[in-house]
Structure formats: C-alpha cells, structure tokens
C-alpha cells in the first residue's frame, strides 16, 4: 500500500502543450439528476468543468436545465428522456460519469444498462451513487466490466451492497479480492479513502477530514476524476485516478483552515487555483 | 435568566470526530415555500447546508426547484404536492423545519397536520412563520406537543397569536407560563431575543441589532437551528438551540461592521467561516 | 438650485433605532418585468433589498420567478396575472415602483391604471421605464397625481414624451413649469441628473458618469429610491429622494475607480457597504 | 503581418465622453442557444454586457430564459420562436452575433437566413459556432456578404469547412485568398490566433494559451467583439476587432497566473476591471 502525496499532483497536473485545443482535454458526459437529486449531477458537471475538462455535457432531466446553465453555463445539456440524444452523447464521450442523483427507477436502470452496453474500450466509466445501488441488484452486469476502464466510487455502505462484504469486515485483503473479481478500479470513500487498482496496487489517502461529511461531496469527486482522466495521459490511469482523489481531499483540507464545513460548491470554485498551485510545486 | 455568550459557541461547535460521515451530522427536512414565498424555504435550506447539516432535503413546490438547486445544489428536493414522497421524507428526517414561506392555505394546514401526526420522539421539529399562524388557529394541535422536541420561533406578533399574550404584556413570567403549558421551546425573536426552555431556564441574547430587520432573517435562523440540532449532541439540546440563535445574531453583528443592512444571503455565506472561528476561540 | 453632496447621505442614512423590526423599514412593491424584460424588475427588487427595505415583493410574471428567487431570495413574489393578489399587494405596500420592464401592452396599461386608482395618500409611487411611456399616452391620468406622493424617473427622451418638451429645450425653467403642473417629483436622468421637487426646489447631481451608460441602471435606481423612502422618515421626502439618487451615482463613481463600465449588479451588491460608509462619515 | 500589442488597447478603449447615454454604446443582439447549448448564448450575452455594450438583447428559446436573467439580468430576452419579435430586434440592432449554441436544425438555418436577408449596411454581423457550419452548407449565402460588415470567428476545423482549406494547408497566403473572396473579416482561432481583414492586413496574437482550451471560450469572444464594435468608433473597425480579440486572450493570460484552466465565466467577470486597466496604461 502506498500513501498518495502532494508530489504526485505535480507529476500528473503538467503544463499543457501550447498547441492544443479543447478536444485534447476530454469530452466528459455526466449522467444523473432525477427530479429529486438534480443538484448532484450539476455539481459533478461543474467540478468537471472547473477541473479542466475540455467539454462537458450533462445528461439530466429538463427540470434541472435552468440550474445547470446558471451554475455552469460552460456545460452542455442532453435530455435524459431523449434516447437518440443519449445514444449520440454516449458514442462521443471520452469519459462518462453515471449515478449522481440518478435514482433507482426503472428508467434509471435502463439508462445505466444502455451505458454499459454501448461502452467502448477507449472510454472511462465512473460509477457512483444510485448507479452503485442499481449495480448491486444486477450482479450479472459485472461481466460487462471485463476489458473496460471502469471506476467505482462507493462509500462503505455502497461497497457493502456491491461487494457483499459487511462494513466491519472490509479489510484491504477482502476488498482487493472482490475488486479484482469485478475488474474495476474501486475508490472506497471513508476516513482514509483507499483506492484498489486493477494492477493490484493499493493507494491510500492521508488528507481530508470530517469537514467533508456533507451532501454532494461524492458527486463532486466524480467530476474531478472525470476531468483528470479526460486530460492527463502522460502517466498510467491508476496514477491519474489517485491524483484526482487526492486533489479533492487536499483542497478540502486546505479550505478547512477557514471553514468549519467545506461545501462542494466551495471546492469546485477553488479547483482552477488549487490545480495551478499543485502543478508549480 | 442567563446571557448567552460567545464562549458557549466553543462548547457546542466542537471538533468533529475523524471517523464520521454525513449521516452523523443530521438529516434535515425543510418544509415550506409556496408560489409567493419560495425564497424563504430556500434560505432556510441553504442556511442548514452552510451551518453543517449532513444532508438537507427541501420539501417545496416545483416552481421553486430551479432557484433551490441554483442557490444550494447541495440540497435535495421533495415535491410538496407528492404525498408519498413527503411521508418518506418525514419518516427519515432527524430535524424538521416547517413554516418558512409555507402560506396558510388548506394544503399548508394539511401538510402541517401530517407533520405533527407523523412526528417521532427522536425528531426535532422547528415551527416558524406561516406554520405559527396556522397553529394559532388550531389550539387543539398543541396537545400533540407532549413529549416531543418542538421549537417555536415566533416574532412578537406571532407569539401574540400563539400565546394570546398581547405584545405589550409579553413579560418573561407570562411568556414562560404559556410556554410551559405548550411544552415547546420558544425562541421569541425581538430586540434582545429570549429563549424559553422546557427546563424553565430562560436564555437571553445580547448580540444582534436593527441591521437584521429585513425579510428572510427568521427563515435563515430556522436552518441554523436545524443544522445545529442535527450535528451537535454532546450537550443538552437547550444549549444547542442557544448556540444556534447566538451564532445567527453574532454573525450578523460581525457583518454589520461593514454593512448597513445585513442580508440573510450574506449571513448564510459566512457561516462556515464564522463557525470555525467560534470553535477555535 | 442646490448641489447634492456626500454630507447629505450622513443626514439621511442614520443609525437605526435598536427597537425596531422589518415592518419599520418599509414594504416595497415592485411591478414590472414582462417576458422580454424580466431582468429589469429583478434588479429593481434586488436594489430595494440591498438598500435596506424591510420587505420587498416583486409583482411580475411566472416566467421570471426562478431568476427572481435565485438573484434575491429575500424578495417575495406576486403573480402579475393574478388580479386578486395584485389588489392585496397594492393595498399593503408603503412604496410602489411601477414600470421597469413592464412593457406597453394593454395588460401593462391595465395594471398601471389599477395602481393609480388604488393609490393611497400614505403611499409613495415611483414611475419608471415603460410606465412613463404609457403615461405619455394617457394625459388624463395625470389628474390622479394631485395630493399623491409620486416620483417620475425619466431619462431625457422619456421626459420629452411625458412633458412634451423636446430634449434640446429641456431647461430648468421649462422642466420646472411642467413638473409643477404634473404635481410629481421628477428625477431627470442625464449627465448631471436634476431633481425637481414639489416645493419648487431643484437639486443637482455632480457625481456619476458615462460608466453608468448601460442597461438596467435606471431600474436599479428605482429600487434604491423605494428602499430609502420606505425606511428614512426623519427628514422631508425631498431630502430622501435626493439622497437615494446621490447614493446610486456616488457608488457607481466609486466603483468606476476599478471598472471601465459599472454594472447594475455590481452597484446592488455594494449598497450595504456603501450605505454604512456614508452613514459613518 | 502585425503583432497586436497591449498598447493597442489604450488606443481603442478610450475614456467615454461625459455627455453620453447607453444608446451611444451599441445595441447588441445575440442569437443562439437551443435546448442543448443554452449556456453558449448566455455567455456571449454576458460577455457583451461586461465588455460595455449599451444594451444587450439575447434571442434564444424560452428554456434558457431563467438562466439568462439569473446570470445577467442586465440583458433583455427575445423569444427565438417569435418571428415578429426577431424581425424587430434585427431591425434595431447595431451589432448582431449569430451562432453560439444555435445548432444546425432547419429552424436555425431559417433564422440565420433571415438575419442575412435583413442585414443592413450600418450593422455588424459576427458569425460563430453552429452558424459557421450552416454557412459551409450554403455557399451561395456568401454572395450576401458583399458590402456588409461581417466577422467570422472560426476555429481551424470550422475554417476548413467554410474555406475548404484543410487544416494542415491553412497558411496565411491561402487563408487570405479565400477570406478576400468571402468579403468578411476572419478571426481564425488557434494557437497564435490570426485575423484577416478586408483591407488585406493580417493581425497576429501573441497572448493566450492552452488554459483557454475549454468549452464556451469562443462564445465569450463573440460577446466581447460585439461590445467593442458597438461602443468604440474612433478608429477603424479593423483596429476595434483586433483590440477585442486581444482583450479576450490577454485577460485569460492574466488570469492564468492564478488558475490552471481559465473559465469563460471568470473572464467575463473580470472584463470591466481589465478594460479599465488597459485604458489607463
């Protein structure tokens, strides 16, 4: 097990080549946000934009359109009820986030299944929130994970549902065993978040804290991971995922010096400045 | 009668335990916001998020959805017209706020009655604004208060309606007598806000001022009280309510050093920083 | 003719009495904002809130509800299409603003006529924008101005329409003559804004500049005048209007030290701080 | 070929004459924003407002109304589905932007054709985004460009579509040849953005960088160009276009000193301050 440290950020968040354009920094597609949880997918989308993704499209319901455009006019919109638009958006994306605020309706299951079915080997898929719960009800869907680049971002209870390992028994050994079977990267969010990679390495986080225990924190993380995977290609994607997760918590820790609770919106706003600082260390 | 002082904040706003998650900091449900007064419940919800509540759900009408998600994407939404969703949300909450911008329609009465009927002894219920007026029309509802943890936050005119004590006769002795009958904590908002507790103690506020005399100020207070009750459990809930009310006015007073009028939105934005400062005194 | 100066602000923007509540600082009703010009009435409402009005209600169409609540959740909403609600709102207001973004439809004419008909002698009415143009088409409406407290805020072209004095002939003498006939205060917005009072005094502004030549600037002024009239009662209302107009331009001038163009939103945001500074001179 | 430099900004961004009003600073009309790309036209509109345009009207669909008014209440709205309103808005504008987020539907083609047909020789027309793609499908529309003041703002792929010159063969000589045939100013956005003027001069940009490679950057540029053309008349319009393009990238470069990625919203917000600094050099 290795500790991720600040030095890793400098390695991953490199200077951009002068001759480049938004197409070089990843097309991110975020899928989620039902009538009750629209804020979740908006925060994921906004985090992706602020973390440097080239182009971000948010697939959600019309009810969330105004808030999406107001919070982050840089993001585009696809109507989650429009099958044809979803098909095209899935086709074009480099990185897909599914789950924040998606809910567990049959419509949600359907869009998730469609996403898995259409998934291309060149694409990254980050599975979070409601999508993890849906996944736990469809164990046969895991067989689609083989040879794909899939990242699960469960908290402990979601991991229990997915892995069938009760929280109290979630040791690195047991977690790694199931994770390897699943053939997905697992970012297990907890006090001391741990990342289980496909190459069997385990990365551990020593930053972050209880000022992050607030709704929307995980949604924000998905956007950061997506943006990082979309734009940073010099190193292995294991390293990039580690750097994204570290950025999220290290920035929260920095903000906790002046805030009792660190809100996702605050983290998102400070990403461009934090990433620059990290790249200049 | 005791004066609440800044030192109390340090006692209540303690360092969070390292191993904790958003579930430890309270599920707050805010109920209100009709077509005319949507801003009220949004400010209550946003105050709850910024004051550190773990999870905040706002039950309001669809017309207020976009503004809610834009102002505070961290909050979730429940449709106030959807009885089934309301039942579930009431069931799960740790702290409920009812009243900001709710209005006094028969639909408002119905949702309030449902809230009282479903109320569990483990839950806190904060009653504000329109809900206080509704309450004054249904004196028989008070009998449901017995053995519940209920906080009323009237200004003087609302307290007159509820208590039948004319403003000019609202002395501590009379207020306490009625408050004890009602079996609810009463936060009487005025110049020198006074809190009447179930244990017969009376707490008095010597901070705040007329820069707070602006619409939405009371709505904001409800969110702060809710967040504090949701997350601080080391001391009695009397102490926690005192600290929440003090935080609201002390922060306003601090902001009045640079603002002629202190707007609720300004207070809300500064809560995370103020709470940290208070916890470090 | 007198020059308004900064010292006047200190006279008007006094310390608030400790024992006071939002009801003491004025109920402002803003009427306007059709489908095309919703931003105008939102800026007027937000300016009123930020300038210290106790309670602000915005009567506009439903299409503008989300933006209103997002920009200024402290303001309440009344549906301009709901005659009954408008009647009640007109009845309760202390200060009414009509015109920003109202348009010149027959519905706009109807609501304006209703406002004039219902107007009470204790109320102030500020007439701006589209409402001035409507007024110029209904010269017989002026007879309703007698013994009312009415403030017109035309720019030069609007004043030409209302007064029938061509811009080039708008001298103080001619302006005053017509203004006295109309029996309304006239704030004539131009380079060197001039205010014609019912008592025949003329006040002149020597602050402000071309950085204010941007859409929404006049809408913002209406909100400031309304808030000042709602809360400041120690001096004559002539003095209060002068102070409001001066505040608007003096604050713009201050912001022009760091901005090539000063946007209304920027002025609004800085009102609470500017008013405090002015009161402490 | 000349390098644009900071000194040019001082030449163009002059002090405003004291006696002037919003009508002197240009009526800008922005046309775009379908259901999927609403943020694009909102950013264009907001950039125009912040860059000093006197009056900005955004012609888009109703779905984008709330976000437009919330982000920039200073802008007015015209319903893109309302042919009569569009006709009037086109008639009155001094500068028109068409394309950001417009899409390529037949409705989009129709509105674009209408714009070209109604175009007056006193007006500027900036063609961007989707409108460039539409243009590439209608080569016969170019004949309408003669004796009009048209500015195209393609990135390299869009220029390939319009000019039929493959990206790799886009040399100044070839670009200029086609541009002269088209009779339009061409702002070719790339690493080292180059501007081809009707008078055959070529201006080259040596500011900006890959921190600008993010969605919405080009939309923002259109608003800045429009505002500059609307308000600055002392020099040739070639000079004004150069200054607008330079402002966009030079401000981004300034912000890149503290941000890894510079978001369009950040550029927009800082325009009033940057323009003042440039005018004072």
Automatic annotation (TrEMBL), chains A, B, C, D:
Coiled coil: none annotated. GO terms for molecular function: ADP-dependent NAD(P)H-hydrate dehydratase activity; ATP binding; kinase activity; NAD(P)HX epimerase activity. It catalyses: (6S)-NADHX + ADP = AMP + phosphate + NADH + H(+); (6S)-NADPHX + ADP = AMP + phosphate + NADPH + H(+). The keyword Ion transport does not apply. One of its GO terms (biological process) is metabolite repair. It holds the Pfam family Carb_kinase. Its cofactor is Mg(2+). PROSITE patterns: YJEF_C_2, YJEF_C_3. Its EC number is 4.2.1.136. It is an enzyme of class 4 (lyase). Keywords: ATP-binding, Kinase, Lyase, NAD, NADP, Nucleotide-binding, Transferase. AMP binds at residues 189-193, 218. (6S)-NADPHX binds at residues 40, 101, 155, 219. Residues 5-278 form the YjeF C-terminal domain. HAMAP family: NADHX_dehydratase. Homotetramer. Belongs to the NnrD/CARKD family. Catalyzes the dehydration of the S-form of NAD(P)HX at the expense of ADP, which is converted to AMP. Together with NAD(P)HX epimerase, which catalyzes the epimerization of the S- and R-forms, the enzyme allows the repair of both epimers of NAD(P)HX, a damaged form of NAD(P)H that is a result of enzymatic or heat-dependent hydration. This is ADP-dependent (S)-NAD(P)H-hydrate dehydratase. The gene is nnrD.
């Amino acid at each position: 097990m290795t500790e991720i440290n600040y030095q890793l950020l400098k390695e991953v968040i490199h200077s951009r080549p002068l001759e480049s354009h938004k197409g070089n920094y990843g097309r991110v597609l975020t899928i989620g946000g039902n009538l009750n949880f629209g804020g979740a997918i908006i925060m994921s989308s906004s985090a992706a934009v602020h973390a440097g993704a080239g182009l971000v499209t948010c697939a959600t319901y019309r009810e969330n359109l105004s808030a999406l455009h107001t919070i982050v006019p840089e993001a585009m919109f696809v109507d989650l009820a429009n099958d044809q638009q979803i098909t095209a958006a899935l086709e074009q994306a480099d990185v897909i986030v599914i789950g924040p605020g998606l809910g567990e309706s049959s419509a949600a299951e359907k869009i998730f299944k469609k996403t898995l079915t259409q998934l291309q080997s060149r694409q990254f898929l980050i599975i979070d929130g409601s999508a993890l719960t849906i996944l736990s009800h469809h164990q046969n869907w895991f067989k689609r994970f083989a040879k794909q680049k899939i990242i699960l971002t469960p908290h402990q209870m979601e991991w229990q549902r997915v892995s069938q390992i009760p929280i109290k028994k979630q040791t690195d050994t047991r977690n790694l065993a199931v994770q390897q079977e699943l053939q997905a990267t697992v970012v297990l969010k907890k006090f001391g978040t741990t990342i289980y990679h496909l190459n069997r390495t385990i990365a551990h986080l020593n930053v972050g804290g209880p000022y992050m225990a607030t709704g929307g924190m995980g949604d924000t993380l998905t956007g950061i991971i997506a943006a990082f995977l979309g734009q940073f290609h010099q190193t292995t994607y294991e390293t990039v995922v580690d750097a994204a997760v570290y950025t999220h918590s290290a920035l929260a820790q920095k903000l906790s010096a002046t805030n009792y609770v660190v809100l996702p919106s605050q983290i998102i706003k400070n990403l461009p400045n934090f990433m620059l600082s990290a790249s200049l260390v």
